[in-house]
Structures are given as structure tokens and as C-alpha cells.
Amino acid sequence: MKKFDLNIEKILEDWEMHHAIREIIANALDEQLLTKTDDIVIAKNGNSWIIRDFGRGLKYSHLTQKENQEKLSSTNVIGKFGIGLKDALATFDRREAIVSVKSRYGQISIEKSPKQDFQDISTLHAIIEDPVDAHFIGTEFELKGVADDEVDTAKKLFLKFSGEEVIETTMQGQVVKRHGNHGNIYINGVKVSEEENFLFSYNITRLSAPIKKAINRERSNVGRGAYTDSVKKILLNSKQKEIAETLAKDLTNINRGTAHDELSWIDVQEHSVKILNQTGKYLFITSFEAMQHPDMIDHARNSGHEIITIPDNLKDKIQGVRDLSGNPIIDITQFVENYNDSFEFNFVDPDKLSNEERVVYQFTPKILDLFGRVPKKVKEIKISSTMRKDFFDETETLGCWDQKTSSIILARKTLKSLPDYSGTLIHELIHAKTGHDSISRAFENSLTEKIGDLCSKILGNSGKDITKAELIDSILEEMDRVWGEDGLGGEPDEYAWLLENFNITEEDDVQWQLILQHSMNDLYDEDLEDEELMTFLEDDQSVIQFLQEFLGKYKNSSASYVNRD
Fold first, then answer.
1. DSSP-derived 3-state class of residue 341
2. Which of 21, 59, 206, 287 has its CA 20 to 30 A from that of 237?
3. Which residues in 500-538 are b (16+ Cβ under 10 Å) and which e?
4. 336-364 pLDDT, tens digit each
């Protein structure tokens, strides 16, 4: 038997029994890690608690070390073999627990003995005895006089036994699902601090200089300043959707002042948005944007997007930014752009327009002449029965310049009046020519209206208050242009030819002749006796509608000016 003075200079008065047990468990876990051996055992045996590893075995010489070089060179170990072990033995003695250690190198117990050469001073000594089993594997600590709850408390200081679940492991450490009402901070798996307002727990495995400096002899109550940067780095290197969703949900609490502390870091907010954006359909908007554009929010929800409300400063950070997969983050601007790109127009063939619509549509060449030279980039002018919605104004647009297809697209509804159609067409021609976006919706509407009024005046037809006389004159002018010397010449021989080339039936022509005669008070007596005919001829609205359709058939036939044979 040999006695070995532990030379403990200062007793850790604040250490409880569970702190001492923590050191024994820490050293056992480290040995398991370093030797890649079986899991450690923590078990009750009668009135004793057994803590055993299956490593290389403890030597009494380890008690002389202040720091273990092997552990210092390893990044993942917990204990500090020497200091921590001696502090634990001293605490067991002070707390009146009986401890014995067994390995293939011997048995170790502790007792108070006089210090060598100073018989009046008693200090804590390790009692070294020969091994009972020279083939014993590992190291076994037997603790007597230790309450079960002290062991349970000690185990909870380790991530391995805490019941907390690791969500993701990064190069800097692990994000851990919080278990209970607070977050825990672990360093290499041992708890060093608690955070009441953290969203997660964290296990820091890459130790920064501030952390190394802050890990004191007690290894507890490490200040936040030491590990804040490490926690940030762990979060900024995370990629799991669960982490991002949890952070994003807490974003909505920022304006209420109830968000967790991680959300006070703007770079963490931005990173959570980047993760979410690549893992699903989300729309990131501010609370003000949500109030301003309810139709857009409804459309986004109906199209499968989940709405995430973000603070204003985060909106500025993510604008134009791409997520971790390289895709643009869907803020309100990007959502509208995506909507516009994916929208499918329902184009209408001009031949399928109604007669009233053709009356307006036939002015297209003249409107283009008024504008001047049509921009070369405009390849086509199309009519669509569906138009993209202007989410910022909550209205359906009347026209747009589609740069991707080099087309001006006009809403079919603009063909209800010449001012609407001409104003919208010239408006979009200006967009195509200049490349400028809209200034404001009020300005746009006013500009379109003024352009339309101007076109109507120049073209001599407002499209609103046209009279029968004006329509009759227009038809006569058009007929003269078609059948005159510069046109086809003469008159058609058959109504079938009129119907084929001008879509004019015999009934159309007869009705036109009656309207013309009625306008000149030149009807036959038998026609004047036809009550149904007279009711029609005296109904200005019905007559004007017919004349508009009749005129439209002539005007839309200009492309058919070909010889009959």
C-alpha cells in the first residue's frame, strides 16, 4: 500500500455531489471516445453506484497531471484529467461519500493523512493498492453514500443523458431540440450554461479562443459573451428545414416583443429565410404589405404558399438575394414577377371578335399611324380575354408589353370603346419604345384616358356618342372606297360573293337599304305599313348597333380586296 498526497491547494466549496459525479462521468466518456470502446456503464449495485468505462485503465500517475496532453490535442473530449478528477475526489471526501477506483493497474481510495514532514497537518491522500484483477478492462468507480437524485442530476449535465434530441450537426457544433422551459449550452457534450430565452439548445464542438478562456475550473456558468459567436456560426451553418421553420415562426413575434433571443441576430433571420425558401413554397412579407395587398395574400395562399411575416429590416436584407440552392427568395416583388411569368393568356383570334368589337379593332392601323413608327421590338399585337392582375393596385390590367414574346397584349374589354382601345394600345407602345415601367396607377389611368380621347378626336369618332347620320356617312365612304375606281369597281353580282368575302348576308344588305331610305324619307308605302319594320327603324339604339356591325364588316374586309376571278 502506498499513500499519495493529492496536493489540493484549494477546495471548491461550491461544488455539490453531482458536480463531482459529473467529473467521473466526463472522464469515462472521454476514455470511451479516445479508445472507441463500448458505452460507459452508470448503474446501481446494491447501495453503491458504479461508473465504468472499458478503456485503458486509470493509473495513479494520472493524479499528478494538471492537464492531460492527449485530451488537450483532441477537440471533442470533455474532462481535464487531473484537475477535475482530484476536485471530484476532494468533493466526495467533503460530502462524506466513500469512493474506490479499480483498474488493472491497482485500486485507489482516499483518506485524510498527515502531510509528509508536517505531521500536524492532515491532507487528502490517495491510497494505492495492488490490483485485484490484472486483466480488468477499463476503470470502475464505486460510489457509496451518494443519493440517487445526485446521480440523476449529474447525468442531466450531459447532452448524452439529457433527453434532448440533436436536430442537426454542423462543423461548429449541434443544434439541439430544447427540452423544458429553457435552452442549454453544452461544450463537447457537457452543460456549461442555461439560456431562458433561447429557442434551441446548442452543443459547441469547435472551441473558439473566448470559449477556451472562459471554461474555468468549475466548468459551469460560462457567460454568454464567450459562446454567442459560436452559437451564431452553428445556426448559420444549419440547413435543416425544421430549424428554419422554428426560427421563421418566431419571426412573427418580433413585432410583439416576444421573440426568442436568436431572432435578435439579423444574419440568423436571413439564414432561416434562405433555408425555408429552398425547402417549400413560402412568401415572405411585412405586416404592412399584408395589410396593403390582401388579394395578393389570398392568391398566394390559394396557390399553395405559406405566408411568413418578417420585420422591415429583414425585408431589406433579403431583397434580390438567393437561397442556398441559388433560387431567388420569394418576397412580394419576386412573387409578382413569378406570377406574371407563369400567367397564361387566353388569346382571341380577330376573326372571332364580335361585330361591335371589330368596329373598334379595325382602327388599329390608323392608331399605329398616329403613333408614328412602331418600335421594331414589337412583333405582334394580341387580344386576350384574360389579363394578369395588378396585385399592387388590386385591379386587372387593360394592357401590357410582354418583352419575352415581343408582344403588346390588350384586354378584350378595351374593344368596347375606341378611347379605351386606342389609349391602351398607345400606352403600351410607349412602354415598348422607352422600356420604362409604370410610374403610378393613377398616372397610368389618366395618361391612358387622355390618349384615348385624343385618338378619338383625331379619328373623328368618339366611339361613345356616334349618330346614325355619322355611321351612314362612314358606310357610304367605305362602300365608295371598296367599289370605286380604286377598289374592286362595280358591284357584286351575287349575295353569295358578298357573304363569302364580306360576311354580308342578303338580309344585311336589304336592312341597310331600308335604313338608308328611311334616313332620306324615301321609303315605299308598303314598307311604311310594316309595324315591326318601323319599330326597328325608329329605335336609334338598334339601328346604330346594326350600322356599327355593318360598317365593321366592310372595314374588316380591306384585306380581301382582290379580283373576283
1. helix
2. 287
3. ebbbbeeebbebbebbeebeeeebeeeeeeeeebeebbe
4. 888 878 788 899 999 999 988 888 898 89
Look up the domain containing 422 and give its range.
350-459
**Residue among 519, 510, 421, 538 at smallest CA distance from 471:** 519
Q: pLDDT by residue (tens digit) across 485-494?
A: 555 555 555 5
Q: Which of 390, 397, 454, 388 is nearest to 422 (CA)?
A: 454
Residues 545 and 474 in one domain: yes
Domain match, 247 and 150 both? no
Nearest to 424 by CA among 356, 346, 352, 367: 367
Q: Which helix (H) or strand (E) holds 306?
A: strand 306-309
CA–CA distance, 259 with 251 (Å, rounded to integer):
7
Whether residue 8 sits in one domain with residue 141 = yes
Confidence (pLDDT) at 242 = 92
Note whether 17 and 134 are same-domain residues. Answer: yes
User: Domain total for the chain?
Assistant: 5
Residue type, 535: T
Looking at the fold, whether 198 and 79 belong to one and the same domain comes out as no
- 262 and 190 housed in the same domain: no
Contact between 189 and 176 under an 8 Å Cβ cutoff? The reply is: no
Q: Is residue 502 part of a domain?
A: yes
525 CB-near residues (< 8 Å, 6+ apart) = none
Among 472, 423, 483, 425, smallest CA distance to 449 is for 423
